[in-house]
Each structure stands twice: as structure tokens, then as C-alpha cells.
Design a protein that fits this description.
The complex is a heterodimer. By secondary structure, chain A is mostly beta strands. The longest helix of chain A has 13 residues. Chain A is globular and about 50 Å long. The relative contact order of chain A is 0.14. Chain B is an alpha+beta fold. Helix content of chain B is about 25%, strand content about 30%. In chain B, strand 3 and strand 4 form a beta hairpin. The longest helix of chain B is centred in the first third of the chain and has 16 residues. Chain B is elongated, with a radius of gyration of 20 Å. Classes of the chains: A mainly beta, B alpha+beta. Chains A and B meet through strand 20 and strand 22 of A and strand 3, strand 4 and strand 5 of B.
């Protein structure tokens, strides 16, 4: 596929006169505002492998999260409330975690965060985080009433979005000092957007908040929780914009009641890899073809986001959770028919 | 001949009026009091997934359209909601 879309630029220079054009070109190169490339590349991904079980006893139903770290994949198995560990060839190695109401057990597995130090498992119904070491032994349990949106882990801190709090929605928990009071921060969320949940990603000391529902916004906060900037990614691509308009978000939100909130998922999951971020959206019609897509986006010096590539999964699907073991590989969970799908692009 | 033409016309009209997808959306009904989520008519997207937000609160999502409802079923066991999904 070789389609390109022009991305609007805030610092571009327009003039009808040729001589002014050259002058402007020179000036713009001198006073450049570090604009990213203006073209969005479209590339095709190919489905390489699809897995539903490893043998008669090791299989999974629904996955809540997938992470990759140090040549291992970690899958949050929602049916059994456990974590499955795979090697980099997608072969089953081990599982840990146990279903149950106890402090060392899991009632509702949701998000995973993994670093070289350990594996954090969010139990959304138990309102806690369980920390395992890299030998899969439980080492700690932390109280955390986080939502199902992605949590961010860096050094000895975990940041999540607190359920029901729209005034200062994000909370930092110190993982090495449980006695320290959690710190709350963040811009007040817009209640009219329904459940304004955000996927959180830590990047170079900044906190990035990607909308899960009803909006395509990405917000940037500094390390102290001060709001820096927001970008609406749907404004950068006409197909994305048309799709979002067609969802009638206002009508959807207005039809909510006190016991039922209606929402439209926009970014199912967010993966950071090097200086790029990958966002899986519902299938969007591009040039008459409706495919699951992954947006590759980047951030400039002004904390503005721009779309660099649109990766077409060539498959009418979404991936509620996925990870990227390499720069050109996506491993995601496809709810229909309930399989792990490995794509290359 | 007129009868044939009329039949063809009716047939063409029926085709014209038929929705793009005849695969009607699935309905998930997670609570006993009739709250439900009807998925949009997508070519393949009719199934629903769900997870629990909190005790008594379920999130129900259509795949792949992403249409979602978060349902507060009040006090109650999640296992009961689970059964009705």
C-alpha cells in the first residue's frame, strides 16, 4: 500500500508568490520549529502465527494484558486469574498467580507491568497490586484502587488512574516504601465525556495520558504532575476524524444513565517502543477498506503528537491488548476467536 | 411479462432497502433488569466481551467496534452477573 495523507502543520509557510516562497523557505529553515515529517506512511502487516493453546492443559480464554520484557512474554489470563509466561518463540514456560479472595490471590486480573526488578499484577476487584520477582515468587502486595486503564511503572513508582476520581485523577504509589502516602495529581477530567479513562505511559520523566474512550486526545504532564499540552490525534487524519464523528459520541454519552454509561473505545491499548507509541483503534475505513489499524505516533519538542505511520492489520479485528517484542512485530490478543496473533510489518 | 417486471422491481427494491450487513448485532444482557448493549451492525463484529470494574459493576464491550457500556448492577455478586453474560 502506498497511500499518503498530508498532515496539517502549525509552522508551515504559505504564499502565492514564488520569490516569497524561496525567502520563506530559507527563513523557515533558519527559524524551524522542529516540525516532524508531514506525510503519514501506510504499511501492511502480515499475520504470521495464531495460537489458542499450547497443549491440552495449557490454554487461555480471554486476555486482559500482554507485556514483553527480557525475551519473555507475560499474559494476564482473565479466565483463570493467573499470568502465563512464554519464551520469545511463544512457547509456554510457566504460570503463576492463583484465583481467590485472599491477600496473595487474584480476584480480577487486569493490567501487568514488568521491569527487570519484577512483575506487577493488578487485581482490579481486589483493589491491589501484587509484586512478583523474576523467579515468579510473590514478594509484596500494595493497596491500589486503579481503573482498568493502563498503569505506568518507573523506578520505584507506579502511576494509575483512581476509580471515580475526576478532580485529581492520577495517583502515584511508592513501591519501595508502602508507608508513604500516595500522591494524587492531574488535570480535572471532563465528566461529560462519560468515563474519561486514560492509558498512562511514562516517557523520559513525563507522564503521557492517552484517552481510552470517546476522544482521541493525548495529554502530557511533567514529572510533578503539571499539565503541559494535549493533542487530538483524530484531527491529524481525515479517515480517523470521519470515523470518530460517525460514532455520535455526544448522543452516546447523553443516552447514559446513572446505572449505565455508554462509551466508544478509541485506543484499546498503548505500547511504547523507543521514541514511538503504538495505539490500536477499532477498524477504520481507509480508501473503502475497513481494517484493524495500529497508529504509530511520536512527540516533538513542544509536547505535540503527530502520526508517523498507520499499520494496517489487514484483518477486521481489534487487539484489546498487545505488545511489540521488536520494532516490526506485534503480538496481540484477538477476542474473536480468542487467539494470540503475531503480525510482522 | 408485466408480472415478471413487477417481481423484478420488487426484488430490486428489496435489495436496495436491505441493510449493508444482515448480520444483526448481538446483545449482551449482563443484569437481570434488562440493561443491555446492542452492538453496531459490523460485518463480523457481533460478540461481546466483558470485565468487572468493581464488585457489581461490569464493563461490556463489542468487538471489534469498541462500543462499550459500563453497567452498575448494584449490590451483588459478580458471579451472578457472570452467569447472565
Amino acid at each position: 500500500m502506498s497511500i499518503t495523507n498530508k498532515r496539517p502543520t502549525t509552522c508551515g509557510v504559505q504564499t502565492p508568490h514564488l520569490k516569497f516562497y524561496f525567502l520563506a523557505l530559507i527563513l523557515s529553515s533558519v527559524f524551524s520549529c522542529n516540525n516532524p515529517p508531514t506525510e503519514i506512511q501506510h504499511i501492511d502487516a502480515t499475520l504470521v502465527t495464531e495460537i489458542s493453546a499450547w497443549n491440552d492443559s495449557i490454554f487461555f480464554g480471554k486476555l486482559a494484558d500482554i507485556e514483553y520484557s527480557d525475551n519473555q512474554f507475560f499474559l494476564a489470563d482473565r479466565d483463570a486469574n493467573r499470568v502465563l509466561v512464554l519464551d520469545d518463540q511463544l512457547q509456554y514456560i510457566h504460570h503463576f498467580g492463583q484465583h481467590g479472595p485472599g491477600p496473595a490471590e487474584i480476584r480480577g486480573i487486569m493490567n501487568l507491568e514488568v521491569n527487570s526488578d519484577g512483575i506487577f499484577v493488578q487485581d482490579i476487584l481486589g483493589a491491589k497490586l501484587l509484586k512478583y520477582n523474576r523467579k515468579f515468587q510473590l514478594t509484596d502486595t500494595l493497596r491500589a484502587q486503579f481503573t482498568h486503564s493502563e498503569i505506568a511503572l518507573y523506578s520505584n513508582r507506579i502511576i494509575g488512574q483512581v476509580r471515580g476520581d475526576i478532580e485529581s485523577p492520577f495517583t502515584v504509589i511508592n513501591t519501595s516504601n508502602k508507608e508513604q502516602e500516595p500522591i494524587s495529581f492531574g488535570q480535572k477530567l471532563e465528566r461529560e465525556l462519560g468515563y474519561p479513562y486514560k492509558h498512562l505511559v511514562e516517557y523520559k520523566g513525563l507522564l503521557l495520558a492517552f484517552s481510552m474512550y470517546n476522544s482521541a486526545k493525548v495529554e502530557v504532564y511533567d514529572g510533578n504532575g503539571n499539565f503541559l499540552n494535549a493533542t487530538d490525534l483524530s484531527l491529524l487524519n481525515s479517515d480517523f476524524s470521519s470515523w470518530l464523528k460517525a460514532q455520535n459520541i455526544d448522543q452516546l454519552v447523553q443516552s447514559s444513565t446513572s446505572r449505565r454509561r455508554n462509551l466508544q473505545a478509541v485506543y484499546f491499548d498503548v505500547v511504547q517502543r523507543n521514541d514511538r507509541f503504538y495505539l490500536n483503534t477499532p477498524p477504520i475505513s481507509i480508501n473503502g477498506k475497513v481494517d484493524g489499524i495500529v497508529l504509530e505516533v511520536a512527540m516533538n519538542d513542544q509536547f505535540e503528537f503527530y502520526i508517523t505511520r498507520i499499520i494496517h492489520l489487514n484483518d477486521y479485528t481489534n487487539l484489546p491488548c498487545f505488545t511489540m517484542p521488536t520494532d516490526n512485530t506485534i503480538l496481540g490478543f484477538s477476542p474473536i476467536p480468542g487467539t494470540l496473533k503475531l503480525y510482522k510489518f | 411479462m408485466k408480472k415478471l417486471k413487477a417481481t423484478l422491481l420488487l426484488f430490486a427494491l428489496a435489495i436496495f432497502l436491505m441493510p449493508n450487513s444482515i448480520n444483526a448485532g448481538a446483545t449482551c444482557a449482563p443484569c437481570d433488569d434488562g440493561m443491555s448493549l446492542t452492538c453496531p451492525d459490523d460485518p463480523n463484529g457481533t460478540a461481546c466481551g466483558f470485565w468487572f470494574e468493581a464488585p457489581g459493576v461490569a464493563a461490556v464491550q463489542c468487538h471489534p467496534s469498541g462500543r462499550t457500556s459500563i453497567l452498575d448492577c448494584g449490590e451483588g455478586d459478580n458471579e451472578q452477573i457472570d452467569d447472565s453474560l
